[in-house]
Amino acid sequence: MPDATPDVLGDGYEAIELPMGRDEEGEVVATLVRRRGAGASRDRAVLYLHGFVDYFFQRHLADFYVELGFDFYALDLRKYGRSLRPHQTPNLIGSLSEYFPEIDEAVRIVRDVDGHGTLLLNGHSTGGLIAALWADRVRGRGRVDGLFLNSPFLDLPEPLVTRKLGAGLARVLRSRFPKAPLPAKVSDLYPRSLHRDHDGEWEFDLEWKPLLGFPVRAAWLAAVRRGQLRLHRGLDIDVPVLVMASARSVRPTRRAPDVTGADAVLDVEHMARWAPRLGRTVTLVRIDGGLHDLVLSAEPVRGRVFEELARWTGGYLPAP
């Protein structure tokens, strides 16, 4: 196993670089971030997967899990955050299954190297879609004990005609022009509402999570759409799944810039519609006033998110 080094988040956090071979752009790595709680007998762990134009920075999320008795792990996927290299196009992949080897390796470290018997997989947004597809792939193998999906990216947040046109264009371009940027509308209003130098309370690296995001490229969108359609046909995840979403969505504009108290990125009704297709035991919780990343919502909303999550883990995961 590669050596752990101090992480950018400071005391208590370690980073483990996971070599993932090469692709058409060169060397590929993923990065496993680890924060262990006190005591040597902690049996439970959580592995967090971030969303699009994102990486792990939410210290308070790790605090919550550690206080609940979990050791905390987060994976910066290839070409994101800690794992992005100068020779790479941010977030460019040809299939969501390209992420599976780094999830496999992270889970191997959590379970087989660090010795945890119970594992919760926590995915946000695109990370929620990836987590669901991975969990369906490993069903029956005992590699994961539960999923928590925070505002998962289960459908494109556009009208039906626009979804079909956009996905069709991405599908046509992906083979010959995989890096072609698509004319997707990107607003900086939601990330500005989060960052403490603008309208929010959170600190994150604007090189790794820029206010205007990264371009939506043909290969990435085609891969996401294939994954979504696979989920729409129905998965068979064999562990309990908790899906949380805001109570409503909003489409921010310069004339209507208020993004507080709603999901300003995805359509929450899509999450409610497709959640039953995930597996055999699915719980859906709607959070009044929740943002797209529910754990970044203002208090007392994020407090309710943590209360619901603590209640669910107590009821559905094996006791420590």
Q: Please count the beta strands (DSSP E, at least 2 residues each).
A: 9
Helix content: 25-40%
Q: Structural class, judged by helices and strands?
A: alpha/beta
Rg, Å, rounded: 18 Å
Describe the structure.
- With 320 residues, this protein is of the alpha/beta class.
- Helix content is 30%, strand content 19%.
- The protein has helices spanning 59-68, 100-113, 126-137, 160-173, 189-194, 218-233, 268-274, 301-316; strands at 4-6, 14-23, 26-35, 44-49, 70-76, 118-124, 146-150, 241-246, 282-287.
- A 9-stranded mixed β-sheet has the order 1-2-3-5-4-6-7-8-9, sandwiched between helices.
- Helix 3 (126-137) packs across helix 6 (218-233) and helix 4 crosses helix 6.
- 44% of the residues are buried.
Concise summary:
This protein has 8 helices and 9 strands. It is of the alpha/beta class.
Output the keywords.
alpha/beta, 8 helices, nine-stranded mixed beta sheet, 9 strands
Secondary structure elements and their pairing?
Blueprint: E1 4-6, E2 14-23, E3 26-35, E4 44-49, H1 59-68, E5 70-76, H2 100-113, E6 118-124, H3 126-137, E7 146-150, H4 160-173, H5 189-194, H6 218-233, E8 241-246, H7 268-274, E9 282-287, H8 301-316
Parallel strand pairs: 4-5, 4-6, 6-7, 7-8, 8-9
Antiparallel strand pairs: 1-2, 2-3, 3-5
